[in-house]
Specification:
Elements: H1 5-9, E1 11-13, E2 19-21, E3 28-31, E4 38-43, E5 46-52, E6 56-58, E7 70-72, E8 98-101, E9 108-113, E10 116-121, E11 126-129, E12 134-137, H2 146-149, E13 168-172, E14 179-184, E15 187-192, E16 198-201, E17 208-211, H3 228-233, E18 249-250
Antiparallel strand pairs: 1-2, 3-4, 4-5, 5-18, 6-7, 8-9, 9-10, 11-12, 13-14, 14-15, 16-17
């Protein structure tokens, strides 16, 4: 845990009860001694108290104190700087900046930037883990019921699937030709076939594989007029990450 006793030692009380700060150098950015979302900007040996956007914290990892960066709270080691500005929220955003889980759907989360919420959804079969802040298998996320993400699909009871290999079986999605479920130890996980293929139920109960749509009755026109070569090359968006824009700072 980092400590800031040197900086705290040169923090003095200003007039009218306001804080003032003696700059250790002519230029630099220094963490506040108790507030994780505040810091001091020194320019020509003049100190100015700055505040990160609500939901962000000052990243004090630069030992040379030359970097001005406010990052998401979960990305910053605040150490003994435990104080924060009171939360300012908007719909889906507990604070103006941050990544927050949806209140009702465990596979949905919101990326909030200045109070504007952008909705993201995990891939089929996954749910948003609030601690790790990544999408994980739904059965590994405590807040999520696997049935919710699996669209209500329930795995057959042990012994009901004659063609299953042990506790492993595959099952077609009831509506989407490309999707299918894998049941493992009674837990359903939703998968999707590669672009250009669909799921074909196997000859044995509980089996199947991804095949050409022309070989799967009822799914021949699944892709319609879609250019499969272009679809396969299209980049997929990143669903979870830190701020990619300049650090918002409140004056």
């Amino acid at each position: 845990m980092r400590t800031y006793f040197v900086i705290a030692a040169i923090l003095i009380a200003g007039t009218n009860g306001q804080e003032s700060f003696k700059c250790p150098d002519d230029f630099g950015f220094y963490p506040h001694h108790i507030s994780c979302d505040k810091y001091w900007k020194c320019d020509n040996n003049v100190a100015e108290l700055k505040t990160c956007g609500n939901g962000l914290a000052f990243d004090a990892s630069d030992n040379k104190f030359l970097t001005e960066n406010c990052d998401y709270l979960h990305n910053v080691d605040c150490g003994e700087r435990t104080q924060l500005e009171p939360p300012v929220g908007t719909p889906h955003c507990a604070r103006l900046y941050g990544i927050f889980p949806d209140e009702k759907k465990c596979d949905v989360f919101w990326n909030c930037w200045n109070g504007e919420a952008s909705r993201y959804q995990c891939s089929p079969g996954l749910a948003y883990d609030r601690e790790a802040r990544v999408c994980m298998w739904a059965d590994q996320v405590p807040e999520c019921r696997n049935e919710e993400v699996a669209g209500g699909f329930t795995c057959p009871a042990a012994g009901e699937v004659s063609g299953a290999s042990g506790s492993f079986s595959r099952h077609a999605h009831p509506e989407d030709c490309r999707k299918y479920y894998i049941c493992l130890e009674g837990i359903a996980r939703e998968y999707g076939c590669p672009i250009g293929t669909v799921f074909k139920i196997g000859d044995a109960d509980g089996s199947g594989a991804c095949e050409d749509p022309e070989d799967v009755p009822g799914c021949e026109d699944y892709y319609g007029d879609l250019d499969l070569n272009q679809a396969a090359l299209k980049p997929r968006p990143t669903t979870v990450g830190g701020p990619t824009r300049p650090s918002p700072i409140q004056e």
